[in-house]
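Let us work through a complete example step by step.
Step 1: write down the sequence.
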Amino acid sequence: MSQTVDRALSILPLLAEGPADLGQVADRLDVHKSTALRLLRTLHEHGLVYRQSDQRYRLGARLIALAQEAMENLDIREIAHPHLVRLNEQCGHTVHLAVYEENEVLYIDKVESRYPVRMYSRIGKPVAITVAGVAKLLLADLPEAERRALSDKLEYPMYTARSTPNAPAFLRELEKVREQGWATDLGGHEESINCVAAPIRGADGRVVAAMSVSAPNVVVTADELLTLLPLVRRTADAISGEYSGRTPVKEASS
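Step 2: predict the structure and record it as tokens.
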């Protein structure tokens, strides 16, 4: 029975590459065509594969619907929280998790610093979208046309001398973030606060959330905070692996 299940499940990755005929399926499974046909018929009955008019098989709508439903029911905050707590225990600084919704970037989780100097950020509160590291990551992942349209609509308050001054500068920063795969806010919102941020990706590689470590420069300098970037990125990768259902990434360690 386990071999039959294994063979049936092996058909799905093959069809994810594109439609295949009975012979191709049999060859991939290294079985007789009659065996492959029985497996395909069973999958077809459950809506997991579909036989086209040209007699080739492709993934069925039921499988796609199940995948979509599963993704919609995933709670990124629930998955990420233990990782955020572990990171906070390792570095001691404030850890945030943020998502992009309806033209706003919102904090959806926060683990407080162990140090007496605390940040004013709150869960459910929008971030400073033109300067925050998490915002840069989330917006940098948007299609270019959408990035440009959004940049034209935004206001660019000069919170500090390091704030992003205008749309062209913002777009350049987003392009840089896309290329390097991480982001910072080094005194762009508050002169005394720095942060490093990393993206959390879904199964399709798109950024679904972003996380950051933030600290005031009276506790740690910007250069010292940047040394935590590898740890932050490993944590984000671990969350991405769990969220997307890939083989779990090894837990982050210092």
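Step 3: interpret the result. Residues 53 and 116 are 68 Å apart (CA to CA).
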